[in-house]
UniProtKB/TrEMBL annotation:
<feature type="transmembrane region" description="Helical">
    <location>
        <begin position="225"/>
        <end position="244"/>
    </location>
</feature>
<dbReference type="InterPro" id="IPR058279">
    <property type="entry name" value="DUF7973"/>
</dbReference>
<keyword id="KW-0472">Membrane</keyword>
<feature type="domain" description="DUF7973">
    <location>
        <begin position="19"/>
        <end position="356"/>
    </location>
</feature>
<dbReference type="Pfam" id="PF25928">
    <property type="entry name" value="DUF7973"/>
</dbReference>
<feature type="transmembrane region" description="Helical">
    <location>
        <begin position="20"/>
        <end position="50"/>
    </location>
</feature>
<feature type="transmembrane region" description="Helical">
    <location>
        <begin position="298"/>
        <end position="319"/>
    </location>
</feature>
<feature type="transmembrane region" description="Helical">
    <location>
        <begin position="158"/>
        <end position="174"/>
    </location>
</feature>
<keyword id="KW-0812">Transmembrane</keyword>
<feature type="transmembrane region" description="Helical">
    <location>
        <begin position="250"/>
        <end position="268"/>
    </location>
</feature>
<feature type="transmembrane region" description="Helical">
    <location>
        <begin position="131"/>
        <end position="152"/>
    </location>
</feature>
<keyword id="KW-1133">Transmembrane helix</keyword>
<feature type="transmembrane region" description="Helical">
    <location>
        <begin position="331"/>
        <end position="350"/>
    </location>
</feature>
<protein>
    <recommendedName>
        <fullName>DUF7973 domain-containing protein</fullName>
    </recommendedName>
</protein>
Length: 358
């Protein structure tokens, strides 16, 4: 006798809860496309700050009934990292929308933008139904990737992994090169950007995408190896300190994400640091049970922050600088470093897996 499906395989979720997630992820992805990828991520920062603040306040109140742990968990996990403004949903939807707009509507290129329009993640795309539909589909895809990776037990930050994978899928779907062709001496060479070399393009390239630079680094003010290592130390120490003093893993991440409001508003040279503060926390979490105290964990946080900065920079030079869409370097740094941490923990080399629930 045929029985209706009660749970979704792999992710071990009931059909109705899954459909609720799917419907909300479609809306969240469309929301990310409407606002734009970067503005939606700023809201991630705001919501995480709210959720972590509630959690800290709850601890200070020492269990008073006025605030309970489920509220804090719901704000950070369900909203900030969930279907509403979770990066794998809203940001991923916005990134895919930018990739689509870069091919479909090149005339929407902002004045003075000398990258491909597919990399414009700061602009809102409003209410055009086809753009919102792209965001919705990729928001749903981001949810599916995260749920499946979690169900399979992939030992990494699956939200960050999903942000990377959905961006690569967008390149395939909208006919962009997966990596692109390096204009200098290999993918790591940023000197064509420093010289302001224009990209060789066919005569029939749409006007909105004409005048592109030969190499388009993720951040023109944050790509030199020493610079990213130094800001990594700074961000890592601050993230580690916040965790040591408050017990919050994600408060530093929220501060970093919220600070991108100023980058979105056009303030020059605002650094992107959420991958630095988050991985800095992991360094402190790994060192604390081994060495105790606060000094060594804080130093470890700085080292891990620098590592995240360097890994993110390497990732942008391979996956971002030479193609035509946004593939997120912080997500790649977080996913790759946490994969190593997760595997080493499972092998018994590390005392914990940071914030991963392994």
């Amino acid at each position: 006798m045929f029985l209706p499906l009660q749970t979704i395989p792999v992710i071990d979720m009931g059909v109705e809860p899954f459909l609720v997630l799917l419907l909300t992820a479609l809306a969240g992805g469309a929301f990310g496309a409407a606002l734009g990828a970067l503005p939606s991520f700023v809201f991630t920062g705001f919501v995480v700050l709210l959720g972590e603040g509630i959690d800290i306040l709850q601890g200070q109140l020492n269990g008073l009934d006025a605030i309970n742990g489920s509220l804090a968990a719901g704000v950070t996990g369900t909203v900030g990292f969930g279907m509403v403004v979770g990066p794998h949903v809203a940001f991923a939807g916005g990134v895919a929308a930018s990739a689509y707009v870069g091919k479909k509507y090149p005339e929407m290129n902002p004045n003075g933008w000398d990258y491909h329009l597919g990399k414009d993640i700061a602009s809102a795309f409003g209410t055009k139904p086809d753009i919102l539909a792209v965001g919705a589909l990729f928001g749903a895809l981001g949810m599916l990737v995260t749920q499946v990776a979690g169900g399979l037990g992939v030992p990494t930050d699956n939200i960050a992994l999903s942000v990377f994978l959905t961006a690569m899928v967008a390149r395939v779907v909208f006919d962009y090169p997966l990596v692109g062709t390096a204009a200098g001496e290999g993918v790591f060479d940023m000197t064509p950007f420093e010289r302001g070399d224009p990209r060789d393009q066919p005569d029939d390239v749409p006007e909105g995408n004409a005048g592109r630079l030969a190499v388009e680094p993720w951040l023109g003010h944050q790509y030199k190896w020493l610079n990213v290592a130094v800001i990594g130390v700074v961000g890592g120490i601050l993230g580690g300190y916040i965790w040591l003093e408050t017990g919050s893993v994600f408060l530093g991440y929220g501060i970093s994400a919220a600070s991108l409001l100023f980058l979105n508003l056009g303030v020059a040279k605002i650094p992107v640091t959420h991958h630095l503060t988050l991985i800095g926390v992991v360094g402190a979490m790994l060192a604390a049970p081994l060495f105790g105290g606060e000094l060594v964990p804080l130093l470890a946080a700085g080292v891990f922050g620098a590592l995240s900065g360097v890994v993110g920079e390497a990732a942008q030079r391979v996956f971002y600088a030479h193609s035509g869409t946004h593939v997120d370097p912080p997500a790649m740094a977080i996913a790759s470093i946490m994969f190593v941490v997760g595997v080493l923990y499972l092998l018994g080399v590390l005392p914990n897996a940071g914030y991963l629930g392994l």
